[in-house]
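Predict structure. Chain length: 752.
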Amino acid sequence: MESYLARRDEHIRSATPGPAAARALSDLTDEAVRALARTASSSLSGRWALMALGGWGSGALLPDSDLDLLVLSDARPEQLRPFVEALLYPLWDAGLHVGHQVRSPKQQVKAMRDDLTVCTSALTARPLAGDTSWGQDVMDRCAADARRRAKSLVPQLLERPRPGSPFLLEPDLKEGAGGRRDFDELVWVSAVLGGRAGAGLGPLISAGYLSTEDAEILDDCARVVSAARWECQRNGYGHRMSLDAANELESVDAEAVQAALARTATTLTRVRGTLGGETVAAPPRSPDELFELLVSGEGGREALETAAVEGALERMLPGMRALMSCRRPGLGHELTVGAHSIRAATLALHPPAGDPALSRSIESREDSRVLLAASLLHDGGKIESGAGHADRGAPLARDAAMRLGLSHKQADDVADLVRLHLLLVETALRDDLDQEDVILRCSAAIDRPELLAPLHALTAADSRATGLATWTAWTATLVDTLVSRLDVALSPESDGAGLASRGEAVRSATLELMDIASDAERRFVGDAPLRYLAGRTPDEVRRHGRLVAELAASPSATEVLIEVSDGPAPATAAVTVVAVDRPELLTRLSGAMALSGLDILSVDAYGGSSGIALDHFVVTSATARPTDTETFVKFERLARAALRDRLELAVRLEERRKHYPSRAKGAVEAKTRQRGWATELTVSAPDRPGLLHDIAEAVSANGLDIRWARVQTIDGIARDVFHLSDENGGPVDDAGVLGHVAMQIRAALRPR
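Prediction complete.
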């Protein structure tokens, strides 16, 4: 065994990945097991045969593959036991994963009838040692029995679950759709139809379910997947081609793997349909048929994916086949570019429940073909790598729209939508929507009012197709807010964005409500910044004024007043905190929130002339437990303790991180830039309890304030945006200070 293990390790380390390497590993293992069998069988009387099953039986043994053995014998159990133990113990002691079965021929027939897994494993059986002719004859009889049961057995094989999608950027190369098991299923069905173990794909071809060309393509696909699995396994990545594996393993051509998975999956889908007597959807032959499939939503997705993979869309959409295997991984992205685009287009007309603003945008369309075409074509520019895919894709989309039968005007609209398809979500997540210049800048980019509704629908479809973590209720709420303000800004009756006039209108309406109010309350409303007023109702402003006046009557550096109300999105709460303005106020409040089990989604910080700060948070639960009154009572208690310096925030947060450790991996990035009138800080880091506390602490240590913040977490990676101000409330223009802030944040957030 020592010699075998040494040769095995050397072969795994040095072999060129692929079917030849898998066959050679099978041959090495055959040799070692035969030697053990010869020694172990010296005292065994009776007929016996040793069979390799599963992948080993197919001659496709990989570094992490189990060794599945079948001992066929008509000897008595007491004679077989010493033989089996002498055969298996050396393999187990060597650390190999060995599964074994010991059966008589009759028992094997019965086991294959009773257990589908036993049956499929044996359909690729290959004799290793003993009476190999007899062993092969037994397995042929078992396969013949399976053939007699083909009417019931084949449907069972076709019901095998196929998790995931062949277009996943992190595909399971063994069990996932398009992986090794899809190829195996075709081999199993072929063996049942042919009534012979190890028959390959020949019986499927003879029966007319598979063409010779298809079989050759499948063999090529199996070779590509086998090579990728070998390389992933010998480097410790297992069966999944993770993003890390795709990036780090130079010998793995990830796009070739995606193409192989896609072709295997679509071929099996087609064969399944034919074997099951189902009508296989024909590929769309005209733009009208293409749009019909897109309008049908999820029901048309698989047919479009199959048509794209097999090249049936190339006449209408040249390059779509290449996009189906084109990989452009980004935060939250799950699928290849082409599959993502098809998913987006099939979602475009079907909004999720609970978003009436999006539903209105979709229903207001004049022609669904413009939206559908833009959704299908929005990422075409990603065929080339690098930034700027929206701009690159716009002229490509215009040409494709013309081929799909759209007018010149409609094609121009499609191109504009593709060029702008990132604008709404990036603005909503990065900018302060209560700033007039943000709305003006965004409305100027869109320019035409009629583009707003389809752009809203495209934005949602793109984000929903990206992944579950991307289009959250919070993101939808922010985009809806932006769209409603852009709708005003772009209307012919509006001169500009209208936020300044809205803010003044809220101020006037609030003062009218304040029949009985103190001078401090009225002073708060009169001094309130337009940025604050534009995003509030008069009743909210009046309530906040009372809180500020209450604290101003007897200001204490350790006092904190809070108001909690329903948040703007489901499962969120709005928390207004009033406290005496002081250095590190936001640092302490955010730390107390983290210890209370709250995640902060956004922060608006307003400092008043009276020295009273009003900070407005939108929060959600950081745990599986929903927020309740007890949550906010705890926050208020911890906030007061933090302001009294009676709470060791850093120590307590470190303890909480031990209970809720970050499960994501990623580099820590902190960058600053001037964006209009704002000094913008963007931070990307693995999310963890107290992340905002650590960022705010670094900002405060440099004499700066966080005026506004927005938080987004996708796949465990936080991408937070902050607007910073100096001690006078103005933008920060000292590059040295900003550089030091970024450096301190990177140091504070670096994993320990």
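Summary: The mean pLDDT is 92.
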